[in-house]
Amino acid sequence: MFGVVFPNRSFPMDISTFTQIDTFHWVLDMNTFVGEAYDSIREVCIFLLNNFTLPPDKALAVYIQAPGSPFLFCGAVTLSRPSAVLSLPWPDPGGQMQLTADAAPLSAKIGVSVEDLASLPSLDVTAEKKIERLALKVGENLFNFMQSFCGVDGSKLVVPMDILDRWFKKFQERAKRDPEYLKGFAL
């Protein structure tokens, strides 16, 4: 049905590595894979296997769960998008960490489930958040640049007519000189 790879950390693993909960849900206990260092796994590549056909209105959704926390949606694959590399933004462990003498320790998990495509918010949640953060940081950079040239006319800020051209030229030149500059915006 599906397989996963943890880039730079594992060989391809098929569905047999996961524990099947029911017909449409599987869970990978990260303790068996990496022990308590689950949060060192930052990405997962999930892919549909060639002989599996997922209905066009369905998706394989990927979730992560830190110990004691609820599951968090990370993204999905579909028949039209049969593979994806998804970021794993592990949440901090939840408050339900207290153990009793007979309780097994809680562990991090990766869950996969077949779901209606229409019910999923986006196929790649982390990519959308990165784009949003990038846009906000670029906007903040532009605002700060404009503010340094502003004059005040009553309750309005007045900027030179060519301020956007000047900012964009400076932004491009800085990006060409320092390849790490743009990476700082994406963090």
UniProtKB/TrEMBL annotation:
InterPro entries: Hikeshi-like_C, Hikeshi-like_N, OPI10
Pfam families linked to this entry: Hikeshi-like_C (PF21057), Hikeshi-like_N (PF05603)
Domain of life: Eukaryota
Annotated ranges, domain Hikeshi-like C-terminal: 131-183
Residue ranges occupied by any Hikeshi-like N-terminal domain in the UniProt entry: 18-120
Signal peptide limits: none
Family from the record: Belongs to the OPI10 family.
Protein name in the entry: Hikeshi-like domain-containing protein
Organism, scientific name: Ilex paraguariensis (yerba mate)
